[in-house]
Design goal:
Blueprint (H helix, E strand, L loop, with lengths): L5 H28 L4 H23 L5 H10 L3 H16 L5 H9 L4 H13 L4 E6 L3 E6 L4 H27 L4 H29 L8 H19 L6 H11 L3 E5 L5 E4 L1 H6 L4 H4 L10 H13 L2 E9 L5 E11 L5 E10 L1 H44 L6 H26 L7 E4 H10 L7 E5 L4 E4 L3 H15 L5 E8 L5 E7 L24 H10 L4 E4 L8 E6 L4 E2 L3
Parallel strand pairs: 9-11
Antiparallel strand pairs: 1-2, 3-4, 3-7, 5-6, 6-7, 8-10, 10-15, 11-12, 12-14, 13-14
Helix pairs in contact: 1-2, 1-9, 2-3, 2-4, 4-6, 4-7, 7-8, 8-9, 14-15, 16-17, 17-18
Length: 575
């Protein structure tokens, strides 16, 4: 057997220890950057397994007798699992599983981890893979039993597997766009090739020439680790990688993502999709898309895909307990041969946007109506004012001049009230509805209204209401209306009741004189009432911006009872 100088031998043994230290440190460092990432977890597992293997190799050559040498050789038989994790890492890094059949095999572990565990057990329990011999002047060495069919199968299996893994990372490098990702893949490719070359030297080539050394694969692992560190520092590996740049974005994006095969069976979803469809990830995968999207809508989407490769701005209502309006965009997913392989749908919840659009449209319509009414009312008032002023001009000192002057002043006050109300009404719908704390709005209204002698009792559940920012004025108007017109009011109770259909009812009840049956709807008309006639009409219009209704349901003589009905989509418990 060709002799290996003691200096070289010690250096090679030292490489095992250096490799263990480097791989352990690098694995912990990478994992700490993003513990939730599959790539980072796989890399940590790979580095820890390589650390264990390197330490086993180091202790093999420190053993002073046959028993110690045999023990550490058996303990190092887990090298097969290191190779399995290496291939798994490359598959995940490059997304290189070529077919559904192979994907299922790797998912179940039957094509990768099961053989690795089996081969490791064979190495631990038999001498079919490695045999120990004693070389005079050198000591104990282990040799691959290349004449044993099992050893040949294991050698060929892992050689072919690593060649395929190298080919996958090479293709990923070649296909990557220019820039950081291409540089990352190139460095990983070179590192993998280095490990394969040095591993092949010790595992097959050098033993054929009778040259026995500590496993040279750890030299390759050290070089691989150096390249990984360089890729991290220079090109942002594991920061800007295929996984973090694509899968991580899809996982965290605010829009729902649903990936299906050509038959409409769901393959993958992200967190936002589970929230939109009110289901878990496990509850959605393997289901048909038609089970979560109405058949008619899904049929229309599929029909669009027959003529085009993408669809956008397809709006529909999901029939949930609380209906949601969504906008769907999507496209065909092509395989590497350019053939359709599936469909990706991007679902955006636009419920609040549609509510805002509806509110704006209603507000514009009502502002237009108000302008017509205001012009008509002010025109009539100006005509009356002109008449009184004409009388005063003809007889400024007449006996009734004071009365006409008083009437003129009253008309001017009414005109000012119309203009003030128009200004406030114009603000309805001009701002986007927002979530507001119901308790906070009521508290501000109570604090801003003098109510000496009137007990205001508030017993409501802590919720938020999606409404026009002017909604606080509604609370104020209802309280003021009770105190001003209730005559005998001593107590006002504000409570909430949740209905079976999800509607939240907000009640304002007093113990005053109440409202007569024939006035229950009239009090919400513009100009009707004992004061300005604008308060309740104004309140109804503010609430209607987000489809919140208000009505008077009390009994005359027992007190007024204003009932505000908030639909399910317009109220929620605070997050």
């Amino acid at each position: 057997m060709p002799a290996v100088s003691p200096l070289i031998f010690e250096a090679l043994v030292g490489f095992c220890l250096v490799s263990a230290l480097i791989t352990y440190s690098l694995g912990i460092f990478v994992y700490a950057q993003k513990p939730g990432s599959t790539i980072h977890r796989l890399f940590l597992a790979l580095m820890l397994a390589a650390t264990y293997w390197a330490l086993g190799e180091f202790f093999i050559w420190q053993a002073a007798d046959y028993a110690g040498f045999l023990f550490w050789l058996k303990a190092s038989s887990v090298w097969t699992i290191v190779f399995a994790i290496s291939v798994h890492f490359i598959i995940a890094f490059t997304d290189a599983i070529p077919s559904k059949g192979m994907q299922r095999a790797f998912t179940l572990g039957t094509g990768l981890y099961l053989p690795a565990v089996l081969f490791a057990l064979i190495g631990i329990s038999t001498d079919w893979v490695y045999a120990i011999t004693y070389e005079p002047g050198f000591g104990y060495v282990y040799l691959p039993v290349l004449t044993n069919p099992v050893c040949q199968i294991i050698t060929c299996y892992y050689f072919l597997l690593m060649v395929w893994a190298f080919y996958a990372i090479y293709l990923s490098w070649q296909r990557a766009p220019s820039g950081r990702i291409r540089h990352q893949n190139r460095l990983v490719c070179v590192g993998v090739a280095t490990v394969i070359v040095f591993g092949s030297l010790s595992g097959a080539i050098l033993p054929l020439f009778g040259i026995h050394t500590p496993n040279l694969v750890f030299i390759g692992i050290v070089i691989f680790s150096v390249l990984i560190v360089y890729a991290i520092r220079k090109y942002g590996l594991f920061v800007l990688s295929p996984e973090t740049a694509v899968a991580e974005i899809l996982r965290t994006m605010p829009d729902g993502m649903v990936l299906t095969d050509l038959d409409g069976q769901i393959i993958a979803v992200n967190q936002s999709a589970t929230e939109i469809f009110c289901a878990t990830e496990a509850g959605l995968i393997s289901r048909s898309v038609s089970s979560i999207i109405p058949d008619e809508a899904y049929g229309a989407i599929r029909q669009t895909f027959r003529g085009e490769v993408r669809v956008s701005d397809f709006e529909l209502i999901l029939p949930h307990e609380v209906p949601r309006v969504v906008s769907i965009a999507g496209s065909m997913v092509m395989d590497r041969d350019g053939k359709p392989a599936g469909i990706v749908l991007i679902i955006r919840d636009i419920t609040e946007r549609k509510a805002s659009e509806t509110a704006l449209r209603i507000a514009n319509e009502k502002i237009s109506l108000l302008s017509q009414l205001t012009r008509h009312d002010i025109s009539n008032l100006v005509t009356a004012l002109s008449g009184y002023l004409a009388i005063l001009e003809d007889d400024p000192h007449g006996g009734e001049s004071g009365q006409y002057l008083s009437l003129s002043v009253g008309i001017v006050d009414k005109i000012i009230q119309h203009l003030r109300f128009s200004r406030e009404y114009q603000e309805i719908g001009s701002k986007t509805p927002v979530w507001q704390g119901l308790g906070t709005m009521i508290e501000h209204a109570v604090q801003g209204l003098p109510h000496e002698g009137v007990d205001i009792q508030v017993r409501i559940i802590p919720v938020e209401m999606f409404a026009d920012p002017l909604s606080e004025k509604v609370m104020y108007n209802l309280l003021e209306n009770a105190i001003r017109h209730g005559e005998t009011v001593k107590c006002v109770r504000i409570t909430t009741e949740e209905q079976a259909d999800g509607t939240l009812v907000l009640l304002f009840e007093d113990d005053g004189t109440g409202v007569s049956e024939d006035e229950k709807e009239k009090i919400f008309r513009f100009g009707y009432g004992k004061n300005t006639g604008f308060g309740l009409s104004f309140s109804r219009e503010i609430l209607s911006v987000t489809d919140i209704g208000i009505s008077e349901t009390g009994t005359e003589g027992e007190g007024a009872r204003f009932e505000i009905r908030i639909p399910p989509r317009a109220w929620r418990y605070p997050e």
